[in-house]
Request: fold
Amino acid sequence: MGENGVVRRLDLLAASCLVLVALPCSSQGNGGSQEPAPGQIAENVTCRGDAGQRYAVFLPSGYSHDRAWPILYAFDAGAKGLLPVQRFQDAAERYGYIVAGSNNSRNGPVALADDALRAMMADTASRFAIDPRRIYLAGFSGGARAAVRAAIALGDHAAGVIGAAAGFPIGVEPTSSMSFAYYGTTGTDDFSYPEMTTLDETLGRLGLPHRLEIFDGGHDWPPADVCVRAIEWMEAEAMRSRRRVRDEAIVDRIAARAASEARAEEEAGRVYHAWSRYSTLAATLAGFREVAPYEQKARQLAASPEVQRAFARAGNKKAAVQALRNAVTKGVGDAAAIEAEADFESLRGEEGFRELLRSLKK
Reply:
């Protein structure tokens, strides 16, 4: 799809979604077994306005219609809406988020995700009390691109995007006028690693609120502990942008949990992970608490041989994957010939990259 086509799709999505976020929050449940219960996951809720659209949903145990709640809409690459709901369940329970994952949206035509979002937004607006200024989007792989596309369409209603293993839609570039915060994630063995690190650098140059977390793993949704940190960072960003009132109790809770996690990693000798935790902690609490000790600890750990080796491996991996992409672009179809294009030692032994290389033989 060309740039004009992307713009047209965004305009159409924006027009339909903005009508939905303008709907008043419902004060009545659906009644009976169709209404998801607080503290539980409903795996397959049918949209009232479109019986062909279904989603999984989690309501925090303290949910009630007495106030508006933030909501996270999730798009999986394979229409497995339950998966992201499960990954974000702990974070949602801790910080009071509704999480809805489409069972229809998957990699493929953009209409799949757009139709799923419209149906989920209409259905959740009729069932739940939702804060229209605290709509979050999350996605994995092609679903991450769908999440960004939806956030752009929603404008100021979109508070943030959690993008896993893919960045912006093809033909759409970040701009300084974007109002949503962005938390990217990628696995150490993810072939999207170069894209995610490059996007993080771009967002930094534009001065946009952003964070990138790299976890042990491949091309996947982030683990539950990363989801907790992503939501904590979004909570802090919501306070910074005044989308929600400053809540010192929440800040204290985030600080205590994250600091304990960082110390545990350090005491266990997991130096790289400790560096990452202290860095995220400092970024999350900036403007709320004194972060100089966390920044100093992160700098000290960054200078350690273990973290320096990790940085070097990451740089080698990024260069190797880029060389692989270049080889594919040039039409080199033989795996041995592709390996000859660059030094791939940094990729050997990592299943995600081996699978990518094997797929080129087909």
Remarks:
- Residues 305-329 form the longest helix (25 residues).
